[in-house]
Amino acid sequence: MSYSQKALDFLEQGKLNEFDENYELALKNDSDDLIYSLAEELYSLGFSDKSKEIYIKMLSKYPDEDELRTNLADILIGEGHVDNALSYLSEIKPTSDAYVQSLMVQADLYQTQGMFEVSTEKLLEAKKIDPEESVITFALAELYFVMGNFNKAIPLYLNLIKQGITNISAVNLVERIGIAYANDGKFDHAIGYLEQIKTIDMTPDVKFETAFTYLQLKNYAKSIEIFKDLRDTDSQYATLYPYLANALSAQHKDDEALKVAQEGLSVDEYNERLYVIAAKLSLKLADEEQAERYLRKGISIDPEDISIALELSNLLVKQERYDENIDLINSYMKDDQIDPQFYWNLASSYDHEDDLVNANKYYLAAIPYFNEMPSFLKTAALFFREYGNLQQTISLLNKYVSLVPSDDEMAMLLEEYR
C-alpha cells in the first residue's frame, strides 16, 4: 500500500498524527501520479492547505503543467486570495490545453464578485473554443439565469436536454427551464416543464414556483393545493403566505385567506405586505377597525412604503375622517413621497373640510392622472362648478359625458354651458 493511501486511510479513521506522518512520507517516496491523486482527494475532503502545498511543489517541478495552476487558482479563490489566483491564471496561454479550464475558473471568480459582464465574456470565449462542451454550456446558462436573462438561458438548457442531459452538477434542467419561463412571465410554457417534476422530487423553491405559476394562470385550486403542501412541509417558508392568501381570496374564501395571512404574520411579523393583505381581507369581511390596526402596524414597520399609507388614507376617507387623512398624507408629501391618489384623497378631504383653496389645488393636481376615470371626472366637475371655475367645469364635463353618455343629468348640466 502506498503512503498516499495509508495517509487517506488514517485520515478517514481520524488518526491525524498518523495521517501527517504518512503524508510526509508520501511526498518523499510516492510517484508523482499518486501524489497528484492524493492532492485531489484531500481537496475534495476539505484539506485545501495540504492540496495547495502539493500543487505548489509539483508546479516547481513541472512548470509547464497548467492544470496545476487552475487547481491552485481554485483553492486560492476559495481562500479569498483573488489577486494570487488571477496571477496563476494569467500565466496560462491560449495555446495551453488548460486554457479553457482557466477561463471557466475566471468566469466563476468574476461572477462571485458580481462582475457578470466579464464573467460572460470568459464563458463565451470558452464556448467559442469548445462549443460542444456541455459543462461550458451549462455554466453559461446558469450565469444568464442568475443575471435574470432568462431568454438567453432557456435555449442553452434546452440544448443540453436535446443532448440527453437532464441533470448536471445536481441541477435538474427541466426544473430550471420551468422556473426560467415563469420568471420570464411565460407561464403557459413554464407549467409544461414544472408539471414534469414529480412532487417527491420538488424542492420547496420549485413547489413555490409551480404554485405561483398556477396562480398566474388563474388555476386557483391547483395553486392552493401546492401552496398548502409547501406550508405543510415547510411552515417557515414565509414567502408562500401572501400568495396563498390571494389565491384563497380569488376563490372567495376570505375567512380562510385572512387566517393564512395571520398565520404568515406569526412566521414573519415584519412582512408589511401581509399586513396590507390582512387589512384588505378585514375590509372585505366588514371589520374596518381590524383593517386599520393592520395598516398602522404595516406603516410602523415600513414608514417609507406609501402603498400602505395610501390604503390607510382610502380607509380614512371612506370613514369621513378627513382631518386625520389630511395629517396622514401631508406627512408623506413633506418628504416628496407622492402617489397620484394622494392628490384625489386630499382634494376630497379639503373639500369636505370646506378648505376650497386647497381642494382646488389638489383637484387640479389630480386631473392628469385620472382624466379617464368617470368617478373622478364627475366629482371634480361638480367641485369646480361650485368653486366657479367655468373652464375646468366644462372641460371635465365634456370628458365625462364622452365616457358616460348615458348619464342624462350630467349631459343636461353640460348643455347649460353651451
Automatic annotation (TrEMBL):
Keywords: Repeat, TPR repeat. The keyword Repeat applies. This is Tetratricopeptide repeat protein. Gene3D superfamilies: Tetratricopeptide repeat domain (1.25.40.10). It comes from Apilactobacillus xinyiensis. It comes from the Bacteria. TPR repeats lie at residues 272-305. Pfam families: TPR_8 (PF13181).
